[in-house]
């Protein structure tokens, strides 16, 4: 599970998704983000709860920016905790993206501190306890057949093609022909299902694959080639917009990701 400790002033996250949850506590300032058709603000002490595969942004909500500590548990981790606690059946999701829960916030901060000092047992224990509290008090559950994104056949096949052709993607026209749809109709349907147009969805896939390669020790230059970006600068630009740190900083930090941004 990745952890991110960061302070941002001028950085703006582009529209992106995570394959797992994004759960964090605002340490200072205000974060503002677009999520599920509305703009939300999270101030000091607030908890941010973003569900998997939900498009969102992120930027400063006041001139001084914001600082936060984030954790990114997988769907499997959260579902397993929910099942163990008998906190509901199906995939857990959080209806409210900004909540107040001082005890869980304190646990998340402590989990970060423990990870920073290399205490894996304490960090994992504190994080799991925090997730359990959030699931009990703030989560709902949906079964697989009740998920909101009902993909039609064309969008489902288009997504499969983009996954298969990460390095040499088709043009929009070729993609539309492959799924037997008109180009503009495919754009509308694709965005309705994923929240992103096909090209932005592809870049999100590339960044996701890049993270795995960087974690395995592959150099950033090689990663750029392997995931289909034109060069390392192209990778860096998209990676930072989604992850919040450049690829080199992400890789150097190992399993504990740290970052710092300022006005320069």
UniProtKB/TrEMBL annotation:
Signal peptide: none annotated. The keyword Transport does not apply. GO terms for molecular function: DNA-binding transcription factor activity; sequence-specific DNA binding. The keyword Amino-acid biosynthesis does not apply. Keywords: DNA-binding, Transcription, Transcription regulation. Gene3D superfamilies: Homeodomain-like (1.10.10.60). Residues 156-253 form the HTH araC/xylS-type domain. SMART domains: HTH_ARAC. This is Transcriptional regulator, AraC family.
């Amino acid at each position: 599970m990745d952890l991110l400790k960061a302070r941002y002033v001028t950085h703006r996250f582009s529209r992106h998704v995570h394959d797992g949850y994004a759960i964090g506590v605002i340490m200072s300032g205000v974060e503002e983000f677009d999520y599920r058709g509305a703009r939300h603000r999270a101030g000091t002490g607030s908890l941010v709860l973003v569900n998997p595969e939900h498009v969102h942004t992120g930027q400063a909500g006041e001139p001084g920016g914001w600082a936060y500590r984030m954790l990114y548990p997988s769907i499997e981790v959260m579902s397993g905790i929910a099942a163990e606690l008998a906190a509901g059946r199906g995939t857990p999701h959080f209806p409210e993206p900004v909540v107040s829960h001082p005890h869980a916030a304190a646990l998340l901060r402590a989990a970060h501190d423990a990870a920073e000092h290399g205490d894996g047992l304490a960090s994992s224990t504190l994080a799991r306890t925090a997730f359990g509290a959030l699931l009990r008090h703030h989560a709902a559950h949906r079964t697989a057949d009740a998920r909101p994104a009902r993909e039609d056949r064309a969008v489902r096949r288009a997504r499969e093609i983009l996954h298969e052709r990460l390095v040499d993607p088709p043009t929009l026209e070729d993609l539309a022909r492959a799924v037997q749809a008109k180009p503009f109709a495919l754009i509308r349907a694709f965005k309705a299902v994923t929240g992103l147009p096909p090209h932005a969805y592809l870049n999100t896939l590339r960044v996701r694959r890049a993270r795995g390669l960087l974690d395995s020790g592959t150099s950033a230059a090689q990663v750029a080639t392997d995931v289909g970006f034109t060069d390392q600068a192209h990778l860096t630009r998209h990676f930072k917009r989604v992850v919040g740190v450049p690829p080199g900083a992400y890789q150097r930090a190992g399993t504990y990701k740290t970052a710092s941004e300022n006005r320069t």
